[in-house]
Amino acid sequence: MSITLISFLVPILILVVGSAYSIHILSHFYEDLFQNKEFVDSIEISKILKRSVREVRLSVLLAGLMTGVGFLSFFTSPLGPLREFGLLCTIGVAVSLFVVFIIMPPMIRLRFIKGWAPSKHNSSMQLIGLKKGDFFKFLKWLVETKSKFLIILVTVFFIFAGYQIPHLQTGMNMINFFKPDSSVFQDYDRMNTRMNGTGIVNILIESPNRGGIVDSGFIKKIDKFSFSLKEENSSVTSVQSISQFIKQMNKVMNFDSIPYETDDSEEVFIDFFSDSTNGSIFGTSENDETAYSSEGFIFEDENNFSGENSQNYEIESGLNYTQIGDLLKEALLNTQTLDPSALELIQGFNKINNYAGAAYDEIPVDPEKYGLETEEELNALISQYLILSAGKLGMVINDDLEPDKTLITIQLNDEDKETLTNVLSHINTFWDREIPAEWKYRIGGSSTVYFLLDKLIIHSQILSILGALFLVWLIITIISRSARVGFIGLLPIVFSLCGLLIAFVAGGMKLDAVTSLTASIAIGVGADYAIHVLVAYRRLSMKMDHKDILFQLYSTTGRAILMNALSVAIGFFALVLSQLIPMGVFGAMFALSMVISSMASLILIPAIFNRLDIGKLFKQDKLKIVGILD
Question: What is 7-167+450-629's CATH topology?
Answer without folding.
Answer: Multidrug efflux transporter AcrB transmembrane fold (1.20.1640)
